[in-house]
Amino acid sequence: MTRIDAVRRLAAAVPDPELPALTIEDLGILRDVRAGAAGGIVVDITPTYSGCPAMEAIREDVERTVRDGGFDDVSVHVVMSPAWTTDWMTEAGRQKLREYGVAPPRGPVTDVQLLQLAIVCPLCGSARTTEVSHFGATQCQAVRRCAECGETFPHFKEH
Amino acid sequence: MTVVATDVAAVSTLRMADDCLVLSHRLAQWSSRAPSLEDDVALTNIALDELGQARALYARTAELDGTGRSEDDYAFLRDERQFVNCLLVEQENGDFATTVVRQLLFTTYQHAQWRALVASPDEQVAAIAAKAIKEATYHRDHAADWTLRLGDGTDESHRRMEAALAALWPYTAELFEADDLTADLVAMGVAADPAVLRGDWEPFVDRVLREATLTRPEITWVPIGGRRGLHTECFGYMLAEMQHLHRSHPGVAW
Q1: Do residues A91 and A80 both lie within one domain?
Q2: How confident is the model at residue B6 (pLDDT cuts 50, 70, 90)?
Q3: Are B82 and B61 contacting, i.e. CB atoms less than 8 angstroms apart?
Q4: Which of chain B's residues have a Cβ under 8 Å away from the Cβ of A143?
C-alpha cells in the first residue's frame, strides 16, 4: 500500500462530529488525498454548508488521526469548489443514516422526478410524512413528522 | 493598517462580506426570542449560513486588497465608517413581520447576486457563489413562505406586514444603486450588474407580495450611503455590541 493510500484509509475512517455514525467519506466531505506540491501529503475536505461549524473539528480530527497513524507530513486543505452536494453521499452512508434515525437525502438532486418521491419515516417505514420545519438541529437537516407513528424525525436535506 | 480596500475587486467582495456579516448578526439576535422554536432554529441556521459566506468573502478580500487581514480584523477592528454593507441589512429586527420583510427583500437580492456570480472569472468568487446560491434558495423560500402566511393571515398580521413593508421599502433603492466603480466591477465579473439584479428581484418580490395580498409601496425617499460607510443610527449600537468582547479582550480565545 502506498503512503497516500495509507493516509486515505485513515482519513476516510474519521467520524463526522455531528453524525458520528457516519464517516467523512460516507458524507462526501473527504474529497481527495494527494501528493502535495511542496512534498508531503494533502488531504482535501469540503464543507457541507458555508458556515458549517463542524469543519474545524473535522480538520483537527483528520490531522490527529493521521499523525497518530505515523504520518507527520500531512496537511488538511479546505476546498470550496466544486460545491458539496448530497449526491456525494455513499450508499453505505445513506443506509447508516437510516439506521441512525435520519431519513437520507433523495437523489440525484438534479432528478426532479426523484425529488417528488415520498420521504420515508426511518422509524416505522411509513411514507405519510410532512415537513415541520425546513431548518433543523444542524444546517443540513430538516424536521419532519410521521402521520403513522406520530414521531418527528430529521431529514438530511437534498442539497 | 490600511482601512480602504486597495484593489478595486476587493471593494466588491468587502461589500458582499459586510452584507453577510451584518445580516448574520441581526438574525443571531433572534436566538431564544423567535415566536416559535422552529423559527428560532431557522433564523439562527440562516445566520450561520450568512456568517460562513462572510468568512469566505473576507478571506478573499484579504488576498485581493493585499493586506492579509484576518476575518476577525475585518469583523471586529473596523469602525462604523469602514463598513460598506447596504443599509437594509443593518435595520433593527423589529417585530417578526419586520424581520420577515427584511429577509424577503434582501435574500431575494442576494439570491440574484449569487446567481450572477456563479460565472465569475474570479474562481474563488465563483466557488463562493456556487455554494451560497443553494443556501440562498432556502433563505428566500423561508421568507416567501412567511410573507404569504402573515400577509394573507389575520388582520393583525396583515397590518404588521404592511407597516414593515412601508418602513423598509425605501432601503431597497440602494441595492440597485450604481456608483463610479460599478461598471468596472461588473466588467471584472466580481459584481452583478444592477440592472440584471433588478430584473431578477422585482418579478419575484412582486409575485410574492401579490399572493400575500400586500401592496407594493411607492418610493417616497431614498436613503443611501451604506456603500460609502454612511450608516443609519442603529448600526453603531449593533457594532458596539458585536465588537465589545473582542476589543475589550484583544486576542482572547475560547
Answers
A1: no
A2: very low
A3: no
A4: 38
By C-alpha distance, which of A145, A16, A34, A147 is closest to A93?
A16
What residues form DSSP beta bridges with A144?
Answer: A131, A153
CB contact under 8 A, A51 and B141: no
Q: Min CA distance, B68 vs chain A (Å)?
A: 18
* Domain count within chain B: 1
- Span B190-235, pLDDT tens digits: 999 999 999 999 999 999 999 999 999 998 899 999 999 999 999 9
Mean pLDDT of the region A23-47: 95
- The residue range of the domain holding A131 is 87-156
Residues A101 and A118 in one domain: yes
The three grid cell numbers given for residue A127, joined into one nine-digit string: 411514507
| C-alpha triplet B218, B221, B225: angle, nearest 5° | 130
pTM for the complete prediction?
Answer: 0.92
| Model pLDDT for residues B94-109, shown as the tens digit of each residue | 999 999 999 999 999 9
The answer to whether the Cβ–Cβ distance between A51 and B55 falls below 8 Å is: yes
Q: What is the ipTM of this complex?
A: 0.86
Residues A97 and A77 in one domain: no
